[in-house]
Amino acid sequence: MKVTKLPWAGIKVETDDTTLVIDPLYHFPTKFGQPHEPFFPLNEFGDVDAVLVTHHHPDHFDPEAIAQAYGTEIPVYMSSESMRFIGPTSLKQLHGVTLGQRLLVGSAEITPAFSMDGFGDPQVSWIVKGSGRQLIHCGDTLWHGHWWNIRKDYGPFDIACMPVNAAIVNFRGDPPSGQPISLSPEQAVSAAHVLGAKTLIPIHYKAIDCPPIYTQTPDLLHRLHASAQERGVTLAVLDSKGSIVS
Q1: Which residue ranges does the record assign to the Metallo-beta-lactamase domain (predicted)?
Q2: Are 42 and 20 in contact (CB under 8 A)?
Q3: Nearest CA-CA partner of 122 in 86, 152, 175
Q4: Confidence of residue 177 (pLDDT cuts 50, 70, 90)
Q5: Is the bond into 202 cis (omega within 30 degrees of 0)?
Q6: Which pLDDT value is given to residue 78?
Q7: For residues 150 and 113, is the Cβ–Cβ distance under 8 A?
Q8: Is the distance from CB of 150 to CB of 125 less than 8 angstroms?
Q9: Which residue ranges make up each domain of the chain?
Q10: pLDDT tens across 87-133, in order?
Q11: Gap between the Cα atoms of 203 and 225, Å rounded
């Protein structure tokens, strides 16, 4: 299994004869100003067989870029609950899935598992199994109590892709909580440890840091390395287009 980092929360997963992308993003949300990392047209990452989406937020679901890069007939999978938030789109193969529903895309097995969105919106993690390896991508989840259940039902994992920016936000018009809406570096490492993941790939950081509406947690890479060393988790910090083979 080869995993390539895309900007922000995106990854590409290649198994023996199947290529998937999860949360590919090209059109950076303008409300966050300029991105703090380069963004690339999705076709620069190559062709894919299907797109997996953790949730409908515009920093995770970019239907225009998906259609431009892969065509309007590309299969796109997301939570059935997320489908009701999708407006008009040229994508013709949007498939809603339920937790635990196992599907085959080529030689890869994909399964949506529990995840918890920081705003209370529907979200899933994606488990991809192929080439004798298994990966989980957790979108922009918060800490939750289902890590042990996921490990029992599906684990252990070779690779876990976890959000690490512990963002504090103030842009939805609701009373701001001052609490993070995604995992902290330490929580991401703990989640990977509980899941039995051999390697942690940090996602969902760097590109967006736009105080006061979206504030990334400080010193996150140093904290990641320190926590991973303490927990005995292998850390693979990748820039976009960087990859690892498991």
Answers
A1: 7-193
A2: no
A3: 86
A4: confident
A5: no
A6: 98
A7: yes
A8: yes
A9: 2-245
A10: 999 999 999 999 999 999 999 999 999 999 999 999 999 999 999 99
A11: 14
State the Cα–Cα distance between residues 204 and 163, nearest whole angstrom.
5
Which residues are registered as beta bridge partners of 94? 76
Crossing angle of helices 185-195 and 147-154, rounded to 10°:
30
Residue 87 exposed, middle or buried by CB count within 10 Å (0-12, 13-18, 19+): exposed
Question: How far is it, in rounded angstroms, from Cα 78 to Cα 90?
Answer: 16
At the top level of CATH, the class of 2-245 is: alpha beta
The answer to whether the CB of 69 falls within 8 A of the CB of 47 is no
**What pairing do the DSSP bridges indicate for beta strands 124-130 and 133-137?**
antiparallel
Report the percent of the chain where pLDDT is more than 70. 100
* Cα–Cα–Cα angle for 62, 17, 45, rounded to 5 degrees: 35
H or E element: which one contains 205? none
Q: Which residues fall within 8 angstroms of residue 210, CB to CB, at 6 or more apart?
A: 31, 32, 33
Closest CA to 242 of 83, 45, 109: 45
Sign of CA dihedral 133, 236, 227, 217: negative
What pLDDT sits at residue 105? 97
Q: Tell me, yes or no, if the pTM score tops 0.85.
A: yes
What are the DSSP E strand ranges found in 84-217? 94-97, 103-105, 108-114, 124-130, 133-137, 159-163, 168-169, 199-203, 214-215
